[in-house]
Amino acid sequence: MSVLTDIFTWWNGSTIGTRVALRGGEFVGEDEVGNRYYRLKNDPTKNAAFGTERRWVVYAGYADASAIPTGWHGWMHHTVDTPPTAETYAAKEWQKPHRSNKTGSVEAYRPKGSTLSADRRRPAATGDYDAWSPGA
Question: Residue 128: inside a domain, yes or no?
Answer without folding.
Answer: no
